[in-house]
Hints:
Layout: E1 2-6, H1 12-23, E2 29-30, H2 33-36, H3 43-53, E3 56-59
Parallel strand pairs: 1-2, 1-3
Amino acid sequence: MKVSRSYSHDDIDSAQRLHNELKAIPNIDPWFDKESLLPGMQWQPAIRKAIREARFFIVLLSSHCPNRKG
């Protein structure tokens, strides 16, 4: 089962911990940009594809999210 997530890069440590925990669950195939995006890949289409193909999408919200500019 494919799982994707969205997070603020200020929360990379929490996102990495969640990714590692999801990887430990049988039949779960988590997508994580830091591991799934390879050098030279066009990241926007790759992220869109991961979201489209995911059965579940997890959003990590924290105090960093509202302060994000751009």
